[in-house]
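Record type: monomer structure entry
Structure origin: computed from sequence
Chain ID: A
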Amino acid sequence: MRKLWAILALILIVSFSWLGLIGREIHRQAPPMPSAVATAEGDVLYTREDIETGRQVYQSMGGQQVGSIWGHGGYLAPDWSADWLHRESMAMLDARAEELYGVSYDELDDGRQADMRVRLQEELNANTYDAETGQIIISGERVAAARQVARHYVDLFGDAHELEALREDYAIANGAIPDLERRQKLTAFFFWASWATVTHRPEGGVTYTNNWPHEPLVGNAPSAGNIMWSIASIILLIAGIGALTWWHSGRKEEAAPVPPASDPLTAVAPTASMKAARKYFWTVIALFLAQILLGAVTAHYAVEGHDFYGIPLSDIIPYAVTRTWHTQLAIFWIATAWLATGLYLAPILGGKEPKFQALGVNVLYGALLVVVVGSMAGEWLGVQQVFDLDMNFWFGHQGWEYVDLGRFWQLLLFAGLMIWLALVGRALWPALRAPGEGRPLTVILFLSTIAIGLFYGAGLTWGQHTHLSMIEYWRWWVVHLWVEGFFEVFATAAIALLLVKLGLVRARTANHGVLFATVIFLTGGVLGTLHHLYFAGATTSVIAVGAVFSALEVVPLALIGHEAYENYRMTKAAKWVQTYKWPIFFFVAVAFWNLVGAGLLGFLINPPISLYFVQGLNLTATHGHAALFGVYGLLGIGLMLFCFRGLFPKFAWSDRMIGTSFWLLNGGLAMMVFMSLFPVGVLQAHASITEGLWYARSAEFLQQPIIHFLVWMRVPGDIVFSIGAGVLALFAGQLAWAGFRQGRAKPTAHPAPAE
C-alpha cells in the first residue's frame, strides 16, 4: 500500500506539472490576437475590439451550442470556422476565375482549377501577422471576399427572408441577433477563428490548428505529426493491454469472504442528515426526466428546425436553449446523485452525526436549487439577447459547452461544492482519524471529495477576453478532470466502501484494488485531457502527449469484463444479497458501457488521425451519450438505489419495477446510439474524409432523406428509454408514499448510525 500511495503521489505531481507546462506552451503559442486586420494600403477590415466583441456576441447567442468553433460545440449548425474558410475560399476562387476567364470557378477545367487552388493555398497559408505592429496584412481581394461572406452571416443571424429556410435547417431562430452592430462584430470573430485554421505558424509546416479542418481547397490535410503519433498511440494501447493482462494473470486473488448471515446495513438507522438527503434524490429524478424531454425536443429540431410537430416552439425555447439545458441538466443530475451519496454515506462511515449536519444539508440543497433555476433562467435570457454583453457573461450564457452558466452562477456552484466538502469532511473525520483496515478507502474517498470541490474552480480561471485557446484548455479541466476524473475516483471508492460494509469484499482487497485502479486511471486520465485540445490552437506537442496518454486511458477497460463478472457474482453470495441485486446490476451495466462507450467508441475518435476527420460530428455525440449516461448516469442511479435501501421501508421495494427500468434504460440507450447517432456519424465521417468537414456539417448533407430517416430512427430508442426513466420515477414515488405512510403511522427517533 505504501508503494501504491507513493506511485499515486508521483503520478499526480508529474502529470499536473506536465499539464501546467503544456498550458504555458499553449498560452505562448496560441494564434495571435491582432490589433487590426487590414490591407497594406491601410483599409481596415476588423479591429481587435471587433474580434473580441464578436466572440462575446457568439457566446450570448448560445455559443458552442449553436454550431461550433474549432470543432467543439453543437452538431446541427455548421462549424463556423470551417464554414467561413470554405465560403471565403470559394469567394476568392470565383472572383479570380471571373477576372481571368470570365466564368465561375466551377466552370473551369481541372487543370486551371488546380492552378488556382495552388495560388489560393499559397496566399492563405502565408503568415502575414506583424508582431511589431500587431496587424494581420491581407490582400484587397481577400478583404472583398471576407466582406462578401460577412454579409451572408449578417443576414443569416438576422431575419432576412431569403435565408429563412437555411436558418430552419440550422435550427437558428429568426432574428437570433436582432442588433445589426452585434451581427457585424460576430463576423470579425468568425474571420479570426477561420484565419487560424489556414495560416501556418511562423516556423511553418502546420497551421495554428494543426491543419484542421480537412479542406482540400486550401490544402488542409493531416500533418505528419498527427499520423505518426496516431500510430504510436495504437502501439502503446496494445502494449499497455498486454502488460496489464500479464500483471492480472500473475496476480493471486484472495478468496471472497464468507458473507454475513444477514444484511449488516439493516442495523443502520438513518440520521436526520441522511434523511435530509432524500430530497436530493427526488431532484435527481426530476432533473433526469426534464433532461430526457429536452433531449427529445433538441433531437427533433434536426428535422423541424423551428417547430416541434408543427408547434413554433423556437419562438419560445430555441434550439440553443434546449441543447444548453439538455447538456447542463445531465451534469446537474448526475453530480447531484453523487453528492447526495456522499452526504448519505459520510455519517455511516464516520460513525456519528455531527452537530447541525442536517441544517447544512438543507442549506446546501437550497443553494443547489438557486443555481439550477437561476442559471437556466439566465441562459434563456442571454439567448433572447436581453442582457448587454458584460451582463451576459455574469448572469446569462457563457457559450462554452458544459460550462454555459454565467459566472455568478458558477461562483455560487463553487461555494456549494465547498459547503459539500465541509459537510462530508466533518462527518468522515472520526473515520479518518481512527486506525483500521477501512481507513485507506475512507482516505481515498475524502481526497476525491477535496478534488471534486476544488477542481471545479478551473472553470473560474478565464475572463471575458481570455484567449479562446486558454478557455478551451481550462474548460476541459472541468469537463475531463472534474466530471470524468475525480468524480469517478469518488464513485469507485464509494462503491468499494458499500461492498465492504455489506461484507462482500475484504477491506484489504478493496483498499488495494481501489488504490491500484486510481493509479492506473489517473496515469492516463490527467494528461489524457489533452486529446480534447489537438486542434484548439495548440502545438504538435499537445498531439504527442494527448495521443499517448489518451491511449493509456483505454488500457484499464480491457479487463472491465472481469470487474463486471465479479460484481455480478456478488449477487449470488448470500440470499439476503438478492435485495441489492438491481443496484449491483447497475454497476455491472456501468462496466459494460465503460467498455463500449468510453472504450470502443471513445478510442474510435481519440487517435489524432481519427479525430482530425470526425471532431464535431455525430461520432463524438455517439461516444458522449454512451459514456456520459452509460457510465456516469447509470453509476449515479446505482448509488441512488443503494441509498434508497436504507432510507425507505423494505416492503415498498419492487425488484420488478427496478428490473424493468434497468433493461429499458440500457436497451433504449443502445437503440438511440446504434440505430441513429452512430450511423449518422459514420456517414458524416465519410463525407468529411472525401469532401471536407464543411460539407459533413452543411445543410446540404444533413438535410438528405437518409439523414432524416436516421434521425427519426432515434424515436424508438427515445421512447423505450423514456419509459424506463418513467418506471424509475414511479418506483421512487412508491417508496416516498410508503415512507410517508409509515412516518404518519409510527413516528420514529433519529439515532446515530451503527458502527
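Annotation 1: The two ends are 25 Å apart (CA to CA).
Annotation 2: Confidence is low (pLDDT under 50) at residues 747-755.
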